[in-house]
Amino acid sequence: MQTLKDALEGMLRKKRYGTIAELQADLDRWLAWYNIQRPHQGRHNRGRPPLQVIREFRTQQELKAA
């Protein structure tokens, strides 16, 4: 299981960053991949990325409230 800390350590080992902005851009890309594209193996995720799980949950809550 990869965490943000693991990802950051990996980035710093693979690339020499000249500015914080360069590092931030790579972190932003990693976070987008992790939260939007990568299938998660959590118990209730069933292989869906976190953003999809959250959107589906919110939709269900809105339907219940209506």
Number of strands: 0
Largest sheet: none
Oligomer: single chain
Q: Are there runs of 5+ residues with pLDDT below 50, and where?
A: none
Structural class: mainly alpha
List keywords for this structure.
66 residues, mainly alpha, 3 helices, elongated
Provide an overview of this structure.
The model has no long low-confidence stretch (mean pLDDT 88). The chain is built from 3 helices and no strands. The N and C termini lie far apart (38 Å). The radius of gyration is 16 Å and the shape is elongated. Helix content is 68%, strand content 0%. With 66 residues, it is mainly α. Helix 1 (4-14) packs across helix 2. It has one domain.
Summarize the structure.
By secondary structure, the protein is mostly helical.
Topology, pairings included?
Layout: H1 4-14, H2 20-37, H3 50-65
Helix pairs in contact: 1-2
